[in-house]
Amino acid sequence: MKNPFIQQLLKPLFLILALIIVCAFLIRVLTDSETLTDYATKNPDLAYGDSSSHIDENEEIKEEETEMTEMEANIENTGEEKNVANPIPDDRIVYMEGFYYDSLSEEIKQRITGISYPVAESKASEMEMEVFNTLGDDVVPAVTYDDLCYLSVLYYDFNGEVQSGELICNKKIADDLAEIFYELYLNEYQIEKMILVDEYNADDTASITDNNTSCFNYRVVDGTTTLSKHALGCAIDINPFYNPYIVFNKDGSGETYISPPGSEIYADRSKDFPYKIDENDLCYKLFKAHGFTWGGDWNSCKDYQHFQKVVE
Question: Which residues neighbour 25 within 8 Å (Cβ) at sequence distance 6 or greater?
Fold first, then answer.
């Protein structure tokens, strides 16, 4: 005999089940026996809302993606346009980032001609800028533009800040200088400034008095008629004010000539002071290791700022 409690519980359950079956039957009749998926497929407007707005949203997304692609392309093109406006020379040699050299560009040639690089006297009047360096029309310069290159390096100034320096040198010592100045840079060796001597109208005294480190300058040795190694781009002066040029018993007068003016205090190399180049200095060691001779080793005079290399 069944439990009266169970009989009472089964009655409402049967009623609920019957109600579910009736509702399912009515839904099938009202929707023409379609499932919800079928109905949604035939009536997208009702199932999903406005179908056109859904399509528009997809189109907007595609347009945004297209705009982003075009924007990225524009950024790349801008970079290419900059390179076109300021093209990197085909012969550029990059030693390390910030350390490279090129053949002299037309812009650099115009910048130095008649200043650090000589111009024929007959052409001097044709120059748009003031001319400071001329040669007779029958004189051939000892070095050509093709023998020289423009060198860019990084260095630490006297404030310990990184600066970009520029030199013009003989192509045959360009590798040496790039390597030397890179090592000086890694060791935070301080150099006050490094700009072309043309900024001083190729006046060597003005350049070294300003403690400017420079290389090429088509000139004679101070106080002589002999062409300097600077004229070949094979010599460089480092922190010259603190490492002066000294001639003992100049002209047999018994006097000592010291250049630049004002650097006399640094002529006594027995003293300790900043930026002094001697045998213990990193600059000295690097230049010597690369086959350069040092003016501080000379007998008839001392040129503590000066390093030069003989090239074939």
Answer: none
Is the pTM here over 0.85, yes or no?
no
Tell me the pLDDT tens digit for each residue of 87-141: 788 889 999 999 999 999 999 999 999 999 999 998 988 888 899 999 999 999 9
Q: What share of the chain is helix, strand, coil (3-state, %, to 5)?
A: 45, 20, 40
Query: Rounded to an integer, what distance in angstroms lies between the CA atom of residue 118 and that of residue 134?
Result: 5
User: 260: cis peptide before it, omega within 30°?
Assistant: yes
Instruction: Give me the count of residues in the chain.
Output: 312
Q: Strand 235-237 to strand 134-135: parallel, antiparallel, or no bridges (unpaired)?
A: unpaired
Per-residue pLDDT, averaged over 77-88, amounts to 52
In this structure, the number of other CB atoms found within 10 A of the CB of residue 185 comes to 19
Residue 62 has φ and ψ, to the nearest 5°, of -65, -40
Calculate helix-pair angle for 282-289, 174-186, nearest 10 degrees: 150
CB of 143 closer than 8 Å to CB of 118: no
Please tell me what DSSP assigns to residue 228.
P
Are 204 and 173 a contacting pair, CB within 8 Å?
no
Burial class (CB in 10 A: 0-12, 13-18, 19+), 121: middle
